[in-house]
Amino acid sequence: MVLMCETGSTRPLDAPKALHHLKATPHNVHWGYFDASLAPALIIDSGDLIQAESLTHHAGDDPALLMDEAMHQIWRSIPEADRNPGVHLMTGPIYVRDAKPGDMLEVRYLTMTPRFRFGSNLAAHWGQLYSDLGERERVTIYGLDPATNTAEAVYAYDVHEKYLTPGRITNCPECDRKPALAGVRVPVRPHLGTAGVAPDAPGRISTIPPGLHGGNIDNWRIGAGATMYYKVQVDGGLFSIGDPHISQGDGEISGTAIEASLDVLFQVILRRDFTFRSPLLETPDHFIVHGFGDNLDVAAKEASLDMLSLIKETGLSADDAYSLLSISGDLGVTQVVDGTVGAHMKIRRNILPSPRKS
């Protein structure tokens, strides 16, 4: 089961069979969960393109800048009591015909376009330094400059109650606005914080922790030009996207990125010629694997073991692969704020030997 000679970033775009438009409407979203019993919002064939809307649940941090009437309709249609057990507003699920448990979904993310020219960062009570910084929550609204592909803070305000209601709407015209981050610009790199297949488990599965199904990985590299591989767990895969971001650092230590809605164009290809245990990311330059755990030691070890397994597919021995990881693999922290923390290991594609023939 050799992956590396057949992966997506090294091949031209497969000719799509169809282009589907998946708008975020009350009937096409699910808030806070994956669920294997959900009816599909869209049914596709392998190779189809999907133009989908992905909405941030943090749009209420400034509804005047981050929401339109279509979004207000969703907020009105899904009561707060039905936004659980997680927090992310997911578009989907997408059913891929003939996809069976054990197959792989190759998802090629082609474009990610901001819906608005603003986004929000919340320093939240689940952030790493919440207790160290006075146990207060703070919202910073960022504006995007398409000409320079950067974002800068527009204003900030303190929140005097914890963010406990997904999609909470703050009355920003009356909040105490403060200047923030004068003279600072950050690169805009749109990506999906949460995407994945439905886990093979009964009932609602929270979108908050990442796992082998994908979910809330929060790796800023999952953007346009990247390809993700997700192992199918239930018939059809039931793939959903959400938690869109326009910028984030490794760690996501305040608890959020710059949260901003995106329009996402992607292609889904059903693969049966290889398998991989955990969500695998391929960029033009790197292979990146993800590990998850209750602490960073566990997550880092999981990422390292999965990368070891991937490299061994080239024909290297475990000992040789281990040495290569130590001298050329980059082990990093993906996020520390989702309960289940994440680590990632990346290695440059061009240093790996040609895969062995099976």
From TrEMBL:
InterPro entries: FmdA_AmdA. It holds the Pfam family FmdA_AmdA. SUPFAM superfamilies: Acetamidase/Formamidase-like. PANTHER family: FORMAMIDASE C869.04-RELATED. This is Acetamidase/formamidase.
